[in-house]
Amino acid sequence: xxDIMQDYIQFSMYHAHNSSLLRRFLVPLxxxxxxxxxxxxxxxxxxxNQELMVTLRDAAFDVVLLDPMxxxxxxVADMLGVPLVLSLRFSVGSTLERHCGQxxxxxxxxxxxxxxxxxxxxxxxxxxxxxxxxxxxxxSQLYWRRTLDSLYTEIKxxx
Length: 159
Fold this sequence. Notes:
Strand order of the largest sheet: 1-2
Shape: elongated
Mean pLDDT: 84
Oligomer: single chain
Order of helices and strands: HHHEHEHH
Number of strands: 2
Number of helices: 6
């Protein structure tokens, strides 16, 4: 996990600004894919561990605090019957903030990550920003349906 995060930090801080637009999206998506795979394994192991789930229920937590980069924390909160509080972070295309956190991020004003724009974008930059928002939203929805839907259905017993 540490190596994957170090790869992401290295790319974001030292290489992204000199990379092509395509590479700015492909490298983080590859890294996020690796993190997601690890997260799915952790989620599967945690939610299917009946002893752990009983221990968590018996602890009578009031809330689950979740970083949306952590897979299935919302499912843990649901299984425990407690509210979920999201803490937002910086995701590719601001997808998690927009979809999971319901953050208001108008594409004409708020630049998507990892684009190097400010709130004063030219028409061309606004167009690229809008395409970034749309592209990351579509890719995220497809990815979530392909990976998370089956796990949630398996755990909750519904689609």
